[in-house]
Specification:
The chain starts with 10 loop residues before the first helix and ends with a helix. The radius of gyration is 23 Å and the shape is globular. The chain has 16 helices and 16 strands.
């Protein structure tokens, strides 16, 4: 049919569209006109979120999903907190953008607050737009400050999706881009105690995971190594639990060879581990903290690179060759100031520690019911269940970087979680447990009951 302006109208398409539910229409528009990250573009079935509150997401048909991964482990204060809305609206009514060469009250307040909660003498902050940019600038700053080029990082780590940050991580999502990796990044093995690369047990090992790093430093030449980059607490690679003294020994190596220690607290920061930063859990003071996510609880994009006074003062009379158009964006800073106050007013960090301990107790009980639970690693509200085919052999239900052909069981587990009303992060043989810090004991019980039901699928695939 031709409209009177000469345009053709597809009546079949119109009829098909009109028959869709509100949720289906939103999903279809997104599938037709947007691209999805880390995914093939066909065969996906996203949740169409209309609104969210606390630990729950709601779609356009009224279905409710328990968000057991805090979005991408960033919505730490929970969804829909209108205090942030009001702070953002007030800032936008005053000024929405200024160049990074100008200052605002929100920028100064946020910098002052970060200095107060950061360990040691980390008192100055460069604001970025997210975690990857914080890591990129940490790497550049380390090289500027030391005059050295090499960065040592772990294989099982994720530091962001820009070229430098992706190279620094060992996550296999970088492999399709392998030809364009950034030079002078050196990787080391992980302190993966459940699957120790050296075949040791944590109770009797000699911390080969640390002596391994020192050998790499010696091989690469200490005079060439600018920094060691470590997650404050392991995240998307499976919440690999550091030995209790691991980061302290890495800190000692850095001091011995005059190397900077960069802590990636993008995921582990802002109460996620039951402390402001995971560095506090491990009792160390890094030279820089790169962070994002929880700084605004995901309400607006913002990242931060917090550096020591020693590093900052070096640039008093030297140009700091770093910068971003949206650095210290006033609206994002205003959101962050309010979010940091919410952590304190609602005692969310204390709640993360209490709920984390409760989850550990309850998952220990689940391990008695489900043979497929091989290991559970957790710090505060950052944890994951590792599913195996056999506890004795530790054969994973899906191996690291498993192709689609090996993901059948885990895909069924993920689908069952969604069917039961949970939004959760499932990757390889990991089911992550990282709910918002405002979660209650009753909501934890609700979530663990759903997980227990879903992993019966993995139990059926268990090999005795």
């Amino acid at each position: 049919m031709r409209h009177n302006d000469g345009a053709w109208i597809n009546l079949n398409a119109m009829a098909e569209t009109s028959s869709l539910s509100a949720t289906q229409q939103v999903i279809q528009d997104n599938l037709d006109y947007t691209l999805f990250s880390w995914s093939k573009q066909k065969g996906i079935a996203p949740i169409a979120v209309k609104h969210a509150e606390g630990v729950y997401l709601y779609d356009y048909d009224g279905n409710r999903y328990l968000d057991f991964s805090s979005g991408l482990i960033n919505v730490n204060i929970g969804h829909g907190n209108q205090r942030v809305t009001q702070a953002v609206m007030q800032q936008m009514q005053e000024v929405s953008y200024v160049t990074p060469g100008c200052v605002t009250q929100a920028r100064g307040e946020l910098g002052k607050k970060l200095a107060a909660i950061s360990p040691g003498n980390l008192n100055k902050t460069l604001f970025t737009t997210g975690g990857a940019e914080a890591i990129e600038n940490a790497i550049k700053l380390a090289r500027l400050y030391t005059g050295r080029s090499k960065i040592i990082a772990r294989y099982r780590a994720f530091h962001g999706a820009s070229y430098g940050a992706m190279t620094a991580g060992g996550d296999p999502r970088k492999l399709p881009h392998d030809a364009q990796q950034v030079p002078n990044i050196v990787h080391v093995e992980d302190p993966y105690c459940y699957r120790c690369p050296w075949g040791k047990e944590i109770t009797s090992c000699s911390r080969e995971c640390v002596s391994h790093i020192e050998r790499v430093i010696e091989f690469e030449g200490p005079e060439n190594v600018a920094a060691i980059l470590m997650e404050g607490e392991s995240g998307s690679s499976g919440c690999i639990k550091y030995p209790p003294d691991y980061l302290q020994k890495v800190r000692a190596l850095c001091d011995k060879y005059n190397i900077l220690l960069i802590a990636d607290e993008v995921m582990s920061g802002f109460g996620r581990t039951g402390k402001w930063f995971a560095c506090d859990v491990h009792g160390i003071v890094p030279d820089m903290i790169a962070t994002a996510k929880g700084i605004t609880a995901g309400y607006l994009p913002l990242g931060a690179l917090i550096v020591s006074d020693t590093i900052a003062s070096y640039f008093d009379d030297k140009v700091l060759w770093l910068g971003l158009t949206y650095s210290a964006h006033p609206v994002c800073c205003a959101a962050a100031v309010e979010v940091l106050q919410i952590y304190e007013d609602e005692q969310l960090i204390e709640n993360a520690a209490v709920m984390g301990a409760y989850i550990e107790q309850q998952v220990a009980l689940l391990q008695q019911q489900h043979p497929s639970i091989g290991d559970f690693r957790n710090t505060g509200l950052l944890g994951c269940i590792e599913l195996v085919k056999n506890r004795a052999t530790k054969a994973p239900m899906a191996r690291f970087n498993a192709p689609a052909s090996e993901m059948t069981v885990m895909n069924k587990v993920a689908a069952r979680l969604k069917q039961l009303g949970m939004y959760a992060f499932v990757r390889w043989n990991y089911v992550f447990i990282a709910p918002p810090l405002c979660i209650t004991k009753a909501q934890v019980d609700e979530g663990l009951a759903i997980i227990s039901e879903a992993i019966r699928i993995a139990d059926d695939a268990y090999e005795n």
